[in-house]
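Deliverable D2.4 — example input (structure tokens):
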């Protein structure tokens, strides 16, 4: 084990099992790191030092008694603030939920607790998971640990930055259009969107129910597999949860790490490359492909012609679902209630209007308007109905492609991390970041983003995306781990070893 905060979760689990470290030590080391650098990064919205240490003490007692609950018992974790945590604030990055403390745990959180993982805190995110930069958080942006003037991706920039800056060995994210994979790409971390229905959504505050998935945010592919196996599997509380055993994800990651991809057919998606893609991102992508070929994979080009319409379809389907989900924030049931000025006895509707006006940010309002418009009678067929048809065609593109190849690949995002503020006033430019990740959500298929190296132009991380058919999540782990092994060998260590330590920026050096 290298040290407490730079080790992988798999290494920490081994050290805990060997008795060479305690969970209290590990948890405290991460809390110290948070205290040292999160003033600059702002990955966390809420840190639960007391609760995490209590859980760590209990974990150490179990280890001492020889009764650990799970291999990861005692390894601390961070949780995106869109997942309900009993007794801990859950804001979804929104003012409208300020002060809300859920009375129950999301199933994935309950599973973390049942396995003995201390929960360090809740991570920052774009409001209600709408965004690609975490700048839409009502609590201020998260900064990219590689360059504090740049975005960490979104919506789950907090989880990705926490893991990249060694403020947590593991984190949970959610991916509706790319919010696990794109932050992974721009922070040099690994992120997985599981097959739709593979991980419970119970207790995940819904953005768009038909697209949302919870998944792992880690520094290695093996760590993602370990966490995915822990949180995944059937949940009777989620009607879309798949009632069948997960494939062997850890076994697939280990198989891939051994470096043999003989017989694996890899399809490069023609539509997800070319003009408009940053040259340095494309160069790292091409290099990664060569490494897959070296490992024995066969690489071919595959066309998915309807992917060019994915973004447009997504930005009708998502706002439609989001606008009905957000209707529950009515000033009566949760969080904020704002009384309108100058009205003596306001009606419920007037209170609702004042609360939403004050409690929702601009991007949320924009999508509510878009969604209600797309669903309104008279426009429903022209917009929402058409978008659903495009969604079907995208699913068919995937089905046809997966008849020819085992996995599909592309760069995860078209560019490296952009500057804070650069795209904030241009929603379309912001939406374009998810060009390559959205098709997987529309079709429900699994995907991973693995760091592919630093782009020549700016020395910032780029990501390599691997997609597989629904229920074949093990393939993304096998191919992802093979690539990670080959690249780590080439770099002489993990990519994150090249990131700034952040120590020098301590105590708010940046205004
Ligand atoms: N950036 C995308 C959006 O704003 C994806 C969000 C997500 O995956 N939660 O919709």
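Example output (designed residues):
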């Amino acid at each position: 084990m290298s040290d407490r905060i730079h080790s992988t979760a798999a290494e920490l689990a081994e050290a805990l099992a060997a008795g060479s470290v305690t969970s209290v030590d590990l948890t405290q080391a991460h809390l110290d790191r948070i205290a040292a650098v999160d003033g600059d990064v702002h990955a966390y919205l809420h840190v639960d030092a007391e609760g995490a240490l209590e859980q760590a003490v209990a974990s150490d007692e179990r280890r001492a008694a020889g009764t650990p609950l799970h291999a990861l018992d005692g390894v601390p974790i961070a949780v995106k603030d869109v997942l309900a945590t009993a007794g801990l604030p859950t804001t979804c990055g929104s003012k409208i939920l300020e002060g809300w403390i859920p009375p129950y745990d999301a199933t994935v959180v309950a599973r973390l607790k049942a396995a003995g993982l201390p929960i360090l805190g809740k991570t920052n995110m774009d409001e209600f998971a709408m965004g690609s930069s975490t700048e839409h958080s009502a609590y201020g942006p998260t900064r990219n640990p590689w360059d504090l003037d740049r975005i960490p991706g979104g919506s789950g920039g907090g989880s990705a930055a926490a893991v990249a800056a060694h403020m947590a060995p593991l984190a949970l994210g959610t991916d509706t259009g790319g919010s696990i994979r794109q932050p992974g790409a721009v922070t040099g971390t690994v992120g997985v969107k599981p097959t739709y229905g593979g991980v419970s959504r119970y207790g995940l505050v819904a953005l768009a129910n038909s697209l949302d998935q919870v998944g792992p945010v880690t520094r290695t592919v093996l760590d993602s597999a370990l966490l995915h196996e822990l949180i995944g599997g059937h949940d009777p509380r989620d009607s879309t949860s798949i009632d069948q055993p997960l494939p062997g994800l850890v076994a697939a990651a280990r198989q891939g790490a051994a470096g043999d991809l003989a017989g694996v057919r890899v399809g490069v998606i023609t539509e997800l490359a070319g003009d408009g893609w940053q040259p340095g991102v494309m160069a790292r992508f091409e290099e990664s492909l060569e490494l897959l070929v070296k490992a024995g994979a066969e690489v071919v080009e595959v066309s998915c012609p309807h992917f060019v319409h994915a973004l447009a379809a997504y930005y009708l389907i998502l706002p439609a679902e989001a606008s009905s989900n957000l209707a529950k924030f009515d000033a009566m049931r949760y969080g904020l209630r704002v009384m309108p000025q100058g009205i003596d006895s306001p009606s419920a509707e007037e209170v609702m209007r004042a609360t939403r006006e004050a409690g929702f940010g601009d991007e949320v309002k924009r999508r509510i308007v878009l969604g209600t418009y797309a669903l309104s009678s008279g426009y429903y067929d022209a917009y929402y109905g058409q978008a659903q048809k495009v969604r079907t065609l995208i699913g068919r593109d995937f089905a046809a492609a997966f008849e020819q190849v085992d996995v599909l690949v592309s760069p995860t995002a078209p560019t490296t991390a952009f500057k804070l503020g650069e795209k904030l006033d241009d929603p379309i430019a912001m939406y374009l970041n998810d060009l390559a990740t959205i098709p997987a959500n529309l079709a429900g298929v699994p995907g991973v983003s693995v760091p592919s190296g630093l782009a020549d132009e700016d020395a910032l991380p780029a990501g390599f995306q691997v997609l597989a058919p629904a229920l074949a999540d093990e393939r993304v782990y096998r191919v992802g781990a093979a690539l990670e092994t080959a690249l780590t060998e080439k770099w002489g260590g993990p990519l994150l070893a090249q990131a700034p330590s952040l120590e020098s920026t301590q105590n708010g050096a940046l205004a």
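Confidence is low (pLDDT under 50) at residues 506-511.
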